[in-house]
Amino acid sequence: MARLFIPGPTDVAPEVLAAQNKPMIGHRSQAFYALFTGLQPRLRELFRTEARVFITASSGTGLQEAAARNCVRQRLLLLSCGAFGDRWHQVAISNGVPVDRISSEWGQPNTPDQLEDALRSGRYDSLAVVHNETSTGVENPVAEIAARARELVPDILIFVAAVSSAGGAEIRVDDWGLDVLLTSSQKCLAVPPGLGLAAVSDRALARARSKKERGWYFDFVQLEKYLVDRQSTPATPAVSLIYALDVQLDRIMAEGIEARFARHRRLADQVRTWAANRFSLYAAEGYRSQTVTTIRKSRPIDIPALNAALRQHDMVIANGYGPIREETFRIGHMGEMQSSDLDVLLPEIDRFLDE
Ligand code: PLP
């Protein structure tokens, strides 16, 4: 089924698309309350958390903004290793949140050692890091980073953007001590774009309660109040997308969470092996994404021409992103994708290279 070999949006199963055609219901109705609260157990299981998972009518960037606005009282330390870490830095600045950034060379991960001097300074009450940097194809060692951060500053809040990995790669929110794990519907979850999802810890909620200006739309305190007291959201939710998410979560549980992660690992292996034999991999060994592979153009390849050829077969891959747009290209392997889909794509790219 998969034809979008880009790092999101990903292909959506027909029954998930069809779920959006259900008749509309009000978001202050028993039918909605049942639908909405019914999502919680499956989302908690998927993200390995006992805490609540907020669902917003937004993409993931809205929740990057939410974490910065709700939870930073003193100063945010932001680890970046690519375009989406840099975006989070901009999001914090444009919300007036005090922030400092530590950047890794692109292609390299962020590391626990990067935290030492900064966190020993006592200036920071919050840390933000991207789990899966969609531009460079780097997966950061978030468990190790979070453990070191908590050693250095026990009550630090840790925010993780896993927009292109949550639901495809294992992230253990509670075991790793994460306070906000945020993602979007349109990537590994394979639901159409338009929902943001965030697992939010009790610690994060307590911090939010202690802050006055949290914004309104993404106010965690309000989102919690409505989730608990009214089984709904403060503003109108994206009801059709929530129907789609409901059906997709059943499909994810039917596949099995571990099986889903294992399938993503196999897809990543397949793409990396193919790419390493023809080009070179952009991300450092040991830190390569399980859901998107960024490939260095170590030999000439015209991506618009390749995509024109692939489109004849209803397939598309992705350009490089941001400053490495010309130097790289990307193959997304997440969501609904199967190995058999790559068995169609990769030989087609080989045929293009041989021409
Ligand atoms: N963070 C990461 C790591 C991403 O990959 C993306 C999008 O690709 C975003 C944030 C922004 O997410 P959205 O486009 O859903 O707002």
List keywords for this structure.
single chain; 355 residues; alpha/beta; 7-stranded mixed β-sheet; 5-stranded mixed β-sheet; globular; binds pyridoxal-5'-phosphate
What are the segments in which pLDDT stays under 50 over at least 5 consecutive residues? none
Distance between the termini: 27 Å
Tally of contiguous helical segments: 12
* Integer-rounded radius of gyration: 20 Å
Largest sheet: 7 strands, mixed
Q: Report mean pLDDT, rounded to a whole number.
A: 98
Strand content: 15-25%
The ordered string of helix (H) and strand (E) elements is EHHEHEHEHEEEHEEEHHHHEEHEEH
Report on the architecture of this protein.
The protein has 355 residues and is of the alpha/beta class. Helix content is 41%, strand content 16%. It is built from 12 helices and 14 strands. The strands form 3 sheets. A 7-stranded mixed β-sheet has the order 2-10-9-8-5-3-4, sandwiched between helices. The protein is globular and about 60 Å long. The model has no long low-confidence stretch (mean pLDDT 98). Bound molecules: pyridoxal-5'-phosphate. Residues 8, 59-61, 84, 130, 132-134, 161, 163-164, 184 line the site of pyridoxal-5'-phosphate.
